[in-house]
Every structure is written in structure tokens, then in C-alpha cells.
């Protein structure tokens, strides 16, 4: 689709380098918490860029884990970051000469990782191991509005605003045939729609955690429930593919039914599934 809102106050985007392979996103986890067959958020862009690192990361083989060079984190909550320390431990002895895995996140998110995770108490400080000069992990700050260029395919990735209980972002993977957006965890968020104005939105992976009966929890924890998500989706053109992520275990049938009752005609949504591969534009 073409741009669907006015031009944004977008940052300068680095010139696109030739992209030799069509981008794919493999859904490793898209659940709002754990249970059998429910893995928390992790998406693999191509084979070397992880977007969030929830329990879905554990479905990658060791060889696949070894190919990961970048991790983009949406925020500091455990269900999105716990794969990072475990990934580091799994690959540390086999990555020598490859350089650190680069972890990209807001400064506030990185501060939480440094203080509460890689503190040699909850987990070893893998930003200094196996050698301080050649660690397995390095931490890199990003900012909303920035466009990164990451991975062997030099994918252009825009940092989007999210509105959650801790500082949070979403990400857009910019492609020549359309853009893929992952909102991260967010409640209603006018700034997101403002940021999407200049994008050529093709696929929207948007969160919804709770059914309508838990609306109060959704409000307190800054997540969507069907009524709030339906209001947000009213501004998304029908041709955009909308994929739901982060539904709490056991809630999907209710969420889908309640959402269907609130969406306008022509607005289809699909529940994202772990194991699914998305072809990006
Ligand atoms: N006020 C609350 N009442 C009940 N559960 C909450 C509350 N705040 C946060 N949570 C839960 O804690 C979880 C932390 O991760 P999430 O934000 O994915 O989802 C959150 C909710 O499931």
C-alpha cells in the first residue's frame, strides 16, 4: 500500500544498500506468557537478527543460535529478554573470532540489564566474559526515531515509540516492497500512529494481551484488550495484514471473538503462530 497518513517528522534514513535476499521473519515465540506450546516473544529476522529474546529463542538449534549477531530488545521485561543471557552462555565457547553479539535497546533497558541481570549475581556479566576485551555480548543504545542498519543483509530497522510500564519501543523493518512493523508491548499510543505515517505499512504485528474481562489489568499494565485494540485498528487500512501477538495463554479464543465483534467490516486480523515464517516486502 502507499503511505496512508501524512508525511512524518522522520529521521534521515541511511541510503539503502542492495538487499540480496528477500527478508523473512521466523516467529519463534508470540505468547504473552508460558505454558505448553506457548513461547514468549522472539522473532528471527533473516538468520542473524533477533527481535526480542523471549523463551522462543530456545527453539533454535545450536547452529542457529551461533548465527545470531544482533538482538533488538523492545523493553526490559523478563518475557522479552531472558533469552539473551542463555544465548550468551550457549554460544560463548564457539563464537571466538566472531566478535560480540550486539544487544541494541533503549539506554534505560540496557541499564536494567546491567544492574539486575548481568550483575554476577542473577547471571554472570557476559559483557566481560570470556575476556573483558573480547566479550560474547556488547550493549548498544538506540533511540526512538533512529534507523539502524543491521545484519549481513544490512536490513534497515526504524525504532518506533511504544507505551508500556517501562521504557519500551517497537521496530519497523523497512523494505522496498513494504514495511513490517512490530509494536512491542504497548497500550493505546498516538505516538505510534504518528510514527507510522511515513511508512509503507504492509504487515503489522500488534500486541493484545487480555480479553475484555481483564480490561482493568490491561489498563494498569499498559497492554491492549479487544476494545482498545479495535479503536487503534480503526486507523489501519484494510489491505494491511494485521497479526496479533502477546495474547496471554488460554485467552486466544475469547480475544478473537471479542475483537471480531468490535472490528469494522473489511478489517481482518490473524493470530500469529509460533513456527510461522513471514515474507517481508
Ligand atoms: N496490575 C496488574 N494486575 C495483574 N497482573 C499484572 C498487573 N500488572 C502487570 N501484571 C502482569 O505482569 C505481567 C508482566 O509482563 P507483561 O507486561 O507481559 O504482562 C503483565 C501482566 O500479565
Automatic annotation (TrEMBL):
Q: Which residues form the Metallo-beta-lactamase domain?
A: 39-239
* GO terms (BP aspect): cAMP catabolic process
Q: Pfam family of this protein, just one?
A: Lactamase_B_2
Instruction: Please give the SMART domains that the UniProt record associates with this protein.
Output: Lactamase_B
Q: Which GO terms describe its molecular function?
A: 3',5'-cyclic-AMP phosphodiesterase activity
| SUPFAM superfamilies assigned | Metallo-hydrolase/oxidoreductase
Q: Which domain of life is it from?
A: Bacteria
Question: InterPro entries of this UniProt entry?
Answer: Metallo-B-lactamas, Pdiesterase2, RibonucZ/Hydroxyglut_hydro
Which residues, if any, are the signal sequence?
none
Q: What is this protein called?
A: 3',5'-cyclic-nucleotide phosphodiesterase
Taxonomic lineage of the native organism: Bacteria, Pseudomonadati, Pseudomonadota, Betaproteobacteria, Burkholderiales
Amino acid at each position: 500500500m502507499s503511505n496512508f497518513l501524512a508525511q512524518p517528522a522522520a529521521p534521515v534514513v541511511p541510503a539503502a544498500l542492495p538487499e540480496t535476499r528477500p527478508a523473512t521473519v521466523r516467529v519463534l515465540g508470540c505468547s504473552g506468557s508460558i505454558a505448553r506450546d506457548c513461547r514468549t516473544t522472539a522473532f528471527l529476522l533473516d538468520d542473524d537478527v533477533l527481535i526480542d529474546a523471549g523463551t522462543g529463542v530456545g527453539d533454535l538449534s545450536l547452529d542457529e543460535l551461533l548465527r545470531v549477531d544482533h538482538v533488538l530488545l523492545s523493553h526490559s521485561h523478563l518475557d522479552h529478554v531472558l533469552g539473551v543471557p542463555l544465548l550468551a552462555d550457549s554460544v560463548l565457547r564457539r563464537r571466538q573470532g566472531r566478535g560480540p553479539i550486539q544487544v541494541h535497546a533503549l539506554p534505560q533497558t540496557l541499564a536494567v540489564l546491567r544492574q539486575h541481570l548481568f550483575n554476577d549475581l542473577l547471571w554472570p556479566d557476559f559483557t566481560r566474559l570470556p575476556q573483558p576485551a573480547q566479550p560474547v555480548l556488547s550493549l548498544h543504545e538506540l533511540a526512538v526515531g533512529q534507523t539502524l542498519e543491521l545484519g549481513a543483509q544490512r536490513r534497515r530497522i526504524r525504532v518506533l515509540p511504544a507505551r508500556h510500564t517501562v521504557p519500551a519501543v517497537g521496530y519497523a523493518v523497512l523494505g522496498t516492497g513494504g514495511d513490517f512493523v512490530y509494536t512491542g508491548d504497548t497500550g493505546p499510543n498516538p505516538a505510534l500512529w504518528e510514527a507510522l505515517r511515513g511508512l509503507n505499512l504492509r504487515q503489522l504485528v500488534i500486541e493484545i494481551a487480555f480479553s475484555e474481562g481483564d480490561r482493568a489489568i490491561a489498563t494498569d499494565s499498559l497492554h491492549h484488550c479487544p476494545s482498545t485494540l479495535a479503536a487503534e485498528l480503526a486507523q489501519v487500512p484494510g489491505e494491511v495484514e494485521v497479526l496479533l501477538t502477546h495474547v496471554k495463554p488460554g485467552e486466544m479464543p475469547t480475544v478473537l471473538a471479542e475483537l471480531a465483534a468490535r472490528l469494522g467490516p473489511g478489517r481482518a486480523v490473524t493470530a500469529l503462530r509460533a513456527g510461522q515464517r513471514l515474507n517481508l516486502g
